[in-house]
């Protein structure tokens, strides 16, 4: 029996391959199928991943561990509109998890998402692209990337969408972005005394306190504290901080783990509050001396420098001087000279 030649074995088969259905039983299989060359298979894999992700955060994290994000991020740029839509649906659902959104920012997904906000894309893509951005626009890094990629104009256009979910998501992203912009603007304008007076009369200080008391808005706390520091140059604002629990909140910012930037701005606020004898008395009753002395041992030199200014301000209160002496403040400050 003769051997089949190589040429004959490579001859394409003229028969059509009979299609058959595949039953996907695990999420790992669904993730693998995202790399299939068959478009129908990709669509079904996306649908399966979306359904699995909708069942809870644990499932989203599981898909993250299986490597679902990279192929989904690639598929939102697919030339097939149906695949793009299904990929965005799965990605949007997964992005509502904090761990997933953190990885998405590292994968630099924001430029691709913003590109799909054009009016020639389907509504379903708009809905889930904006859903992705609602979670990606919460922290400073995400906000910066959206601004850098000119994401605000298309979001404003989508406010006119006939789809209520697209409108809602777009408005939420804009709200996240505008809060940051508004606080940066207020940092500049509240250096002026008349502007601070207007800000105070419009109950702006109370709104600042609302932001500072909201643990879900931690990305806005540094900017809000900087505005507060400007406002505390006025005695009228110092009186406000006494009446609404603001001093206790400032001390919380120092006592709880925070970035050096937030600690610095908070200490600056305390120093400005301590310019009046009444405020020094209240701060003394809050044991602020113990907090300040504790901060003299931190590594950050900017924090320690501002603590020294706060100690100088509080030192005008006789009882505070006694407290600083008893707490070993003087040896600690002398140590800083070496």
From TrEMBL:
Protein's name according to its UniProt entry: Armadillo repeat containing 3
InterPro entries, per the entry: ARM-like, ARM-type_fold, Armadillo, Armadillo-Ser/Thr_Kinase
Matches recorded under PANTHER family: ARMADILLO REPEAT-CONTAINING PROTEIN 3
UniProt keyword Repeat present: yes
Keyword Repeat among record annotations: yes
Top-level lineage group: Eukaryota
Species whose genome carries this gene: Nothobranchius furzeri (Turquoise killifish)
SUPFAM superfamilies: ARM repeat
Pfam families per UniProt: Arm
Keywords: Repeat
């Amino acid at each position: 029996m003769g051997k089949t030649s190589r040429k004959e074995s490579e001859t394409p088969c003229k028969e059509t391959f009979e299609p058959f259905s595949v039953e996907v039983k695990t999420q790992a299989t669904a993730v693998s199928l995202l790399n299939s060359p068959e478009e129908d298979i990709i669509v079904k894999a996306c649908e399966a991943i979306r359904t699995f992700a909708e069942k809870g955060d644990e499932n989203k994290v599981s898909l993250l561990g299986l490597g679902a994000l990279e192929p989904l991020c690639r598929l939102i740029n697919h030339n097939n509109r149906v695949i793009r839509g299904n990929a965005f649906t799965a990605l949007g659902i997964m992005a509502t998890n904090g761990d997933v959104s953190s990885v998405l920012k590292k994968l630099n997904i924001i430029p691709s998402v913003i590109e799909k906000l054009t009016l020639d894309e389907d509504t379903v893509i708009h809905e889930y692209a904006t859903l992705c951005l609602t979670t990606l626009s919460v922290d400073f890094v995400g906000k910066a990337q959206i601004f850098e990629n000119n994401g605000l104009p298309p979001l404003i256009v989508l406010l006119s969408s006939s789809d209520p979910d697209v409108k809602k998501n777009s408005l939420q992203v804009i709200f996240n972005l505008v809060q940051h912009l508004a606080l940066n603007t207020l940092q500049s304008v509240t250096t002026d005394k008349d502007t601070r007076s207007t800000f105070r009369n419009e109950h702006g200080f109370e709104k600042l306190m609302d932001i500072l008391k909201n643990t879900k808005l931690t990305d806005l706390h540094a900017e809000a504290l900087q505005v507060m520091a400007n406002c505390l140059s006025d005695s009228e604002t110092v009186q406000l901080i006494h009446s609404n629990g603001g001093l206790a909140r400032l001390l919380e910012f120092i006592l709880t783990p925070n970035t050096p930037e937030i600690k610095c701005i908070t200490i600056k606020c305390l120093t400005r509050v301590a310019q009046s004898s009444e405020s020094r008395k209240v701060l003394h009753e809050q044991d602020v001396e113990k907090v300040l002395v504790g901060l003299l041992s931190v590594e950050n030199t900017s924090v320690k420098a501002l603590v020294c200014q706060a100690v100088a301000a509080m030192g005008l209160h006789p009882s505070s001087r006694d407290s600083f002496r008893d707490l070993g403040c003087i040896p600690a400050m002398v140590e800083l000279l070496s």
